[in-house]
Amino acid sequence: DDLECVHPPTQAHKASSSPLIIYLQNFITPQERAHLKQVSEPSFRRSVVAGHDGAQRSDIRTSQSTDVSRDAVVRCIEQRALRFQGFDTREEQLEPLQLVKYGPGEHYDFHTDWLDPQYSTSFNGGNRMTSFFVYVYVSNDTTGGGTNFPLVVPPRDERWCGLLECDDAYANGLTFRPVEGNAIFWENLTPAGLGDPRTEHAGLPVTTGVKIGMNIWTRQVPVSDEVRRQDMPLDF
Ligand SMILES: O=C(O)CCC(=O)C(=O)O
Ligand SMILES: [Fe+2]
Fold first, then answer.
1. Distance (Å, whole) CA 74 – CA 12
2. How far apart are CA 102 and CA 25, in angstroms?
3. 2 C-alpha to ligand 1 centroid (Å)
4. How many C-beta atoms lie closer than 10 Å to residue 133's C-beta?
5. By Cβ atoms counted within 10 A, which residue in 17, 90, 149, 208 is the most buried?
6. Are 79 and 94 in contact (CB under 8 A)?
7. Which residues form the pocket of ligand 1, taking CB atoms under 6 Å from any ligand atom?
8. pTM
9. Which Gene3D superfamilies match (predicted)?
10. Concatenated DSSP letters for 129-162?
């Protein structure tokens, strides 16, 4: 646990102004990726989504997920995610980092990361202000598995190709390709603090290969200790 926290030289590219979406190249290092993959491997369980009877399995989200414990590597990534958001965001606003794993045919249908008011009480830390989705592992044979924002107009410059799906029909919106080590950051809420419907997105089906991603969600206010300890209802 005496790891020195060294942040990689991340390059940031704005992909959309409204909603704000920023693409981050080289957000996590190869060592961090290998570590996350190794520690999470035994604990993946079928993913759940928020439902009336609490967190439940659903055809909407067929991946496997797990929280990761806050070891030195994870704390270093947390500090990076906080620092990127400026100096006003507090560590207590972070949900436990969540890894998600998709095999062939697995996907996460269109959804928003912001939650219904019933799940975003101040007890729960309010709503999810921002999201990072980090590509932790993408096997060499991976096809599919992009992250699609159907309501966002894609940027046009050719230098995006490779990072984005440039051959896609314009009407399909913005699709990021899964590129290991890179991340997407976006703001989920409008300036008034309401869920922004334009942030709707999906984890497209992985056709071949395996993709492991990581969610870093920041709440509007500190998450109460009770909720942090119960680990619920944060696991969706
Ligand atoms: O798998 C993806 O590309 C996106 C996953 C996602 O949106 C989520 O887990 O909330
Ligand atoms: Fe999401």
1. 21
2. 22
3. 31
4. 22
5. 149
6. no
7. 100, 108, 113, 133, 147, 201, 203, 213, 215
8. 0.94
9. q2cbj1_9rhob like domain
10. EEEEEEEEEE-TT-EE--EEETTSPPP--GGGBT
pLDDT in tens, 7-36: 999 999 999 999 999 999 999 999 999 999
Selection from 219, 211, 151 nearest residue 182 by Cα = 211
Question: Quick one: pLDDT at residue 91?
Answer: 93
State pLDDT tens for residues 160-175. 999 999 988 877 999 9
Give the tokens for residue 58.
């659903």
Q: Which amino acid appears at position 19 of this protein?
A: P
Between 55 and 194, the higher pLDDT residue: 194
Task: State the distance from the centre of ligand 2 to the C-alpha of 2, rounded, in angstroms.
Answer: 33
Fold of 11-230: Jelly Rolls (2.60.120)
ipTM of the complex: 0.99
**Residues lining ligand 2 (ion), CB within 5 A?**
113
